[in-house]
């Protein structure tokens, strides 16, 4: 009997331990006023992702994923701690720009929550792909459009919520399922060639929100190979000035929205070699882009 109790205790404490040492893989601030912090990690085998939000508010907090950055069609959660210290948390769906309805199937699960007079924090988890195809969106290895919002007012009930102020909301494009500092696990000591694709020094124009920049690079291989990892810096970059505020001034990362690698299928491929040293061009400015760039339209990697 005694040994059973001891074992049970051990298992319990092992579980607590696992929760405590879980390494957050990513940590970002979602709003420009440094009030909305997000951390997350995921488990590929369990197909599960866990988020932690810490927000400087005593009202409600909303977080979710959007098909296009807007609220309509978004799969989201809203949580708050009421005056009795009880946390309310629901998996919801926003049909329109209105109070999102509570899903019949609750697939985002609250793990932990708390508040301290100035901040509220919520830790919650869900599987990448839920069975709720009506009101949940899948989490994929693509870029995910996260939406966030908060209000300083506490709802009186889950269906009577004060709206967020226009400023206390936003969206952010994030590669949720990226592995920080991921390195290929090379068990067989195969020879790996690394191909670093870098842009020339590009001064991002200041007269437009979004810049599309294209540059030709010569691939160091000609036949089909197994590409393990590509370190790229810029190839086809989309730069969004207003939507993505400078978060980490030390690096250019926040400016890069996404990159696409295209294959150039010029009938005479050596003809493209002359562009290897070309600085690149604004991809939407056809007048100034070398004509041969039109041969590069076969998407290779996003
Ligand atoms: C409340 O929690 C936030 C987030 O963890 C923390 O930054 C802040 O210092 C805390 N405030 C107090 C008074 O403990
Ligand atoms: C792989 O290479 C490393 C360093 O070159 C070496 O220490 C290790 O023993 C090698 N492993 C195998 C399986 O050959
Ligand atoms: C915008 O860029 C141009 C040249 O690219 C520069 O002359 C100008 O000072 C810049 N304006 C601001 C506000 O940075
Ligand atoms: C292909 O392009 C290269 C470089 O411009 C040129 O030297 C060569 O003659 C071209 N080959 C053919 C078959 O047109």
TrEMBL record:
GO biological process, one term: octopamine biosynthetic process
Signal peptide per UniProt: 1-18
GO molecular-function term, one example from the UniProt record: dopamine beta-monooxygenase activity
PANTHER family (UniProt xref): DOPAMINE BETA HYDROXYLASE RELATED, MOXD1 HOMOLOG 1
Keywords, comma-separated and alphabetical: Membrane, Signal
Chief site of localization: membrane
Keyword Membrane recorded: yes
Source organism, top-level taxon: Eukaryota
Domain DOMON: residue ranges: 34-151
Lineage of the species this protein comes from: Eukaryota, Metazoa, Ecdysozoa, Arthropoda, Chelicerata
Organism of origin: Oppiella nova
Cellular location(s): Membrane
Family designation: Belongs to the copper type II ascorbate-dependent monooxygenase family.
Protein name: DOMON domain-containing protein
GO CC term (a single one): secretory granule membrane
